[in-house]
Amino acid sequence: MTLDDTLHIDGNAPVGDLEEFFRLAGGDSVPLPQCQDCARFHWYPMGRCPHCQSERLVWRQLDGRATVYAATTVRHAFTERTRGQTPYGLALVTFDEAPEIRMVCRAIGPAPAIGDAVTVRVEHDPASGDIGMIWCRLTDEEDRS
Ligand SMILES: [Zn+2]
């Protein structure tokens, strides 16, 4: 699979290559674009590698295991969508398989703290016409073994 340059800007639809990201995600696997020339990952998806400008990109499925790099708690709903859902945790995570990548995730359950092991999960329901969500939850001890 390769990235495409398609842009979709119609209301709540995912924009550009994020649509492919959400389409490829499932379970606890997290797709990330990887350059075939310099082998580095990048995030957000782009039509060219931001490190070497190569257009030879492929999607790689990561297992979703990550570590919290920074965390906060959201106490104010900034959109109608999140009204009534506060407070909730947000985490900036780095992936075990791609430690150079940092991705923002919304926490399920207790708000994670810096250094916590988390599992990232991407959800997208194409039928909803809504953008997808990137979630993380504290990793159980059994998940790490
Ligand atoms: Zn590259």
TrEMBL record:
<dbReference type="InterPro" id="IPR012340">
    <property type="entry name" value="NA-bd_OB-fold"/>
</dbReference>
<dbReference type="InterPro" id="IPR052513">
    <property type="entry name" value="Thioester_dehydratase-like"/>
</dbReference>
<protein>
    <submittedName>
        <fullName>Zn-ribbon domain-containing OB-fold protein</fullName>
    </submittedName>
</protein>
<dbReference type="InterPro" id="IPR002878">
    <property type="entry name" value="ChsH2_C"/>
</dbReference>
<dbReference type="Pfam" id="PF01796">
    <property type="entry name" value="OB_ChsH2_C"/>
</dbReference>
<feature type="domain" description="ChsH2 C-terminal OB-fold">
    <location>
        <begin position="59"/>
        <end position="122"/>
    </location>
</feature>
